[in-house]
Specification:
By secondary structure, the chain is an all-alpha fold. Helices cover 78% and strands 0% of the residues. Helix 1 runs antiparallel to helix 2.
C-alpha cells in the first residue's frame, strides 16, 4: 500500500495541522465519557508506526464486524425461539 504524503505549502499549514491533531487527541483522551480501554488504545497506538497501527485497526474492525453479525444472528435465533413458546 503506497501512501501519498500530504503536501503542506507553508510551515504555517503544517503547524496548524499538527495543532489540530493534538487538539483531537486531547479531546478524546481527556473526555470523561471515553472508555478506559479506548484511552489506553489511543496512547498505545499513538506511540507506534502509523501504518502498522492502521493495519491492526483494520483487523480489529473486521473482528468487530464479525462479532456484530454473530450477535445479530444470536438475537434472531433468540427472537424465533421466544415467539415459538
Amino acid at each position: 500500500m503506497s501512501e501519498t504524503p500530504t503536501t503542506y505549502h507553508t510551515d504555517n499549514e503544517l503547524e496548524i495541522a499538527l495543532k489540530d491533531l493534538e487538539r483531537m487527541l486531547r479531546e478524546v483522551t481527556e473526555n470523561p465519557d471515553t472508555s478506559i480501554w479506548l484511552r489506553k488504545a489511543i496512547v498505545e497506538l499513538w506511540q507506534r508506526d502509523s501504518i502498522e497501527a492502521l493495519e491492526d485497526l483494520a483487523i480489529l474492525q473486521t473482528l468487530l464486524q464479525a462479532k456484530k453479525t454473530s450477535d445479530l444472528l444470536m438475537l434472531d435465533r433468540w427472537a424465533e425461539s421466544a415467539t415459538k413458546h
